[in-house]
Amino acid sequence: MKGPKKGIEWEKLGFGFSDVNCHLRMTWKNGRWSKPKFVKDPSITLHIGAACLHYGQECFEGIKAFRQKSGKIVIFRPDENGKRMYRTAERTCMPPIPVDTFVECCRAVVKRNSEFVPPYETGGSMYLRPLLIGTGPQIGVAPAKEYTFLIMVMPVGSYYKGGIKPVRAVIFDEWDRAAPHGMGDVKVGGNYAAGIFAHEKAKREGWPVELYLDAASHRYIEEFATSNFAGISKSGVYVTPDSPSILPSITNMSLKQCAKDLGIKVECRPVPYSELKKFDAVAALGTAVVITPVWEITRGKDVIKISSPNEVHPILQKLYDRVRGIQYGTIADKHGWCFEVK
Length: 342
Ligand code: COI
Hints:
With 342 residues, the chain is an alpha+beta fold. The protein has 6 helices and 18 strands. Strands 1, 2, 3, 4, 5, 6, 7, 8 and 18 form a 9-stranded antiparallel β-sheet that branches. 2-OXO-4-methylpentanoic acid (COI) binds next to loops.
């Protein structure tokens, strides 16, 4: 495995695209997947009638790889992302990638780009973006007959500026993210497209993130536009919504386990909006955002001040330190979450 490439200003990295050695590409035709290829050129040529362009037949994942203190490079829980992409592919009538193949593809593309995994001390990571798209031309609405699977990788820093710095959030009642019995529980681009308009408005008006309520009644908390929701109750319980229309987040799954390991009680249940003001802390949870505390939430005239903009609740800090410690190899990985790249 190569050491970090010289000449990159690792500390200045944000969450954006940068060029690396190659990405991985695999195609599906005549009922089978090809062997993976490693391609330098980051652009792809698509048929003008590709199903992903017209009917949104696509899905993606977000995964991180870390350079640990010992120098080892590991990928965090790619098997869980592989299982989630398998479910999303089935839901969108695309040929699923076997989970073992998915994990091997992740390892292979990180290995070929190992000098772009940020140095341990910088707190950065390599972001992997697996993408499955319907590439065959499809003019009537139906599944495509050809598909492409890609894994793009790049070194990244924090998603929101400032690492674990609390942010403000907003709820807009005018727009929903996912309908009951819709696609909210799988990772399709359309779920994010549904939020772009609201997201741009939120950013313009000073909120880096939006929180969505359930589309049917607007009485229950679902998730943030980019990530899951958790609240810490006055009695120190980790509370996270149980809903069929939110994405089963691998970060949330890991934090629930970390909480249990630390003796923190976990409740996964419907969370009414009225409970928001009772929380001592709220956070957005995801691969990209890790744990981002949310100190204030605005809904119309209702401004709920949850915590202070300058403080991180000790339970959130403990969970953050635990999961980051496992990822960077300073805390024992007793659940086998880190997949080494050799
Ligand atoms: C991730 O957390 O990896 C995601 O895919 C969310 C995306 C909006 C950045």
